[in-house]
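> @MW can you paste both from yesterday?
MW: sure, first one:
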Amino acid sequence: MDVGPVSAFYSFNDVEGFRARVSGQTNLKFHPKIQLEGLLAYGFKDQEWKYGASLKYSFRDNWRSFPQHHLKVSYLHDTKFVGNQLKFVQEDNFFLSFKRGASDRMLFTDRFVFEYFLELENNLSWTLSYFNTDQRPLGSLRFNFTDPVTGEKASYHSLRTSEVGLKIRYAPNEQFLQGHNYRTPIYNKYPVFTLDYKLGMDGILGGDFAYHRLSLNIFKRFYLSLFGNTRFEVEAGYIWGDGVPYFLLHLPVANQTFAYRTGAFNMMNFMEFASDRWALINIEHFFEGYFFNKIPLLRRLKLREVVSFKAIYGGLRSENNPNLDPTLVQFITTTTDGHTTPVTFTLENQPYMEASVGVYNIFKLIRIDLVKRLNYLHNPDIPQFLNVKGLGLRIKVKVEF
């Protein structure tokens, strides 16, 4: 039995206050084909218990071996920030508790997941899933709408989705850095394709909404000899359906912590933009000392240079736009001195863009980036650094491959 991660034992946020958590998972010594996971947490401000459990059964000799083939069933009763998606760390990680801007808009989620995963030796994988999720707003988050019959303002206590999902991923010649409970891909010169489809079912197993969601993501690493290497990612997606609430639309992965995240928009706020069609680009170039090696001191320290550019462009059809239909679940607003200001916007006018320049390999672990938000600077709660709006300093601890 492995207990942890230690970094999630203690965390805090504006809704739960001080949050204590204990979690763990079985290892191969318990059973080579079966893995059990569980968590128990408590918020001392909201005085709510959170818990979750999962069971994984492997059709291979053990659940960690490649290629994987397993069934997994899980249930989670816990809080989450809307628009915050993490891959290899927990959302209640202590170091991610330090956030800028408003951090009191959360969801309390009851989520059941059934997953069938099949991975082939050529690195083609299939994931067939069923999700049943009940979500209720916490903190200052609300599901407000106008009743179409009475014309009166009202609010949903919670909303439920019932989804079937299919994800196909192809990563030829991919290698992994294998951890106890996760695998980190070591990218090479070959592209990675991910096709993701979800079907929302209204009236089936409690589902409140009908929609189709389809996205395609392509990742490629380019090697440029003496000039280093470039990580290039593009994604496009579309959501079919009418009356889809904002929290089920595409919300770009935002980052309100002070840690740099490669896959997120580091100067964007949670739920700041919503779209039912979108295209994004994420470019990161590592010079691997091309400039610093020409400076004796920096060459001796083995520091490395990195630059990045990220952009996302999208749109929202009138059928899903709360600004045009008051009977839909309304976008979030904030009220200051009697003035109501929207905090969720659309991207029809121009793409959101941000860029950064940074130094990595500091003590072989640390990366520091100076990130600049290039537009939408008049939106509320824009971070600033050195009195420059949209500028921020972000830190990352990771060994780069």
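MW: second:
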Amino acid sequence: QGEDWHKLRAPINKLLMKVDSATHYLEHHNQVANKFVDILATQNLKAQELQTLFARYAAEGAGVVVFNTRLGFLEGQLSEELSDFLDAAKKLFSILQDVILGKSVGHRWYKSRTYQDYARALGIIGGSCAVHALKAHQVLEERKRAGTLTNEEPNLLLSLLKEENLQRADVDTMLISLYTAGAESTAKILETLFYNLAKNPETQEKLRQEIFKTLNMRDHVTATDIANMSYLKACLKESFRLCPPVCNTMVRLLPIDVCLSGYNVPARTPIMIYPNAKCISGFQDPLTYMPERWLQNNGLAKQDPLAKIAVLPFGLGPRNCAGQRIAVQEIYLATIKVLQKMRIELHPESSDVEFVYRIFLQPKIPIHFKFTALQKG
């Protein structure tokens, strides 16, 4: 909190909060997305396997940024170490959700079952990150000695290690947070977007036509390509509106007593702000998935006066999500490359999915997607 938080966050902001920060990783993220599509096209995966694949894709993309390397989440049989990381991350956020909602209180005073499960999951995650961070650090040292390392290249770990006021423990803490939260959130957001596109085939086809118009069948996606795809951005934003990725986009501890809607709230009380963007007073047909409402040349955009502030999936202000540009880039690339080659559909048992929060929004049971190759010509 306060200055302690700012000391840790400021170095990350310098690299990841710039407008073009994600673009530096675009080449590697293209390769990761290509591998993701190859797996979908060649393997007939069941619902649970598909959900795991979303997690593997997001973790691989996050590793490119955090550890400056490919970690192998999409290469053949998943190793025990990488599999344990995915399981631990899932467990960790489930526990955190229960703690936030008050389902666990004993952990404050003794090492309850919740405390032990959390410590075990965090230990697995921390151990995995420590191994990758050590390898990345060794590569940096080798490149320094060889004279092949430049200060201008985008390298999160290098940037953090150069900060004189950061201890190695501080660096490890930030790497764990970015890697774990980035991987888990991106996977869930992508799965939800695919669900909304599968539920709305006309919207999916309209997006596919925008992709074909921009890329045709060109494999490599550039920053300019993404910038020109307004409907792609609208589809993701509308998915955020209907399915907020977190139940409390912002949590604030105000330094003074305040009165909110007639309730006296003492200073330092956690205030959770739910992103309610389904009010009929703010949106026309609020329960309908309608990306057109976000297009500036569409009349619906003018009818939604709350459009600019109603959907804030990554928070607002200095405490907003540091990895948001990276996450969105990964989501855009996966969506583009899948729709270039396949149609996203749902098996009957997943036609009407119930979602729950485990910090991040996720289906109560894994969604059984059906990916069908497009007919050539």
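> thanks! The chain has one domain: 2-246+311-373.
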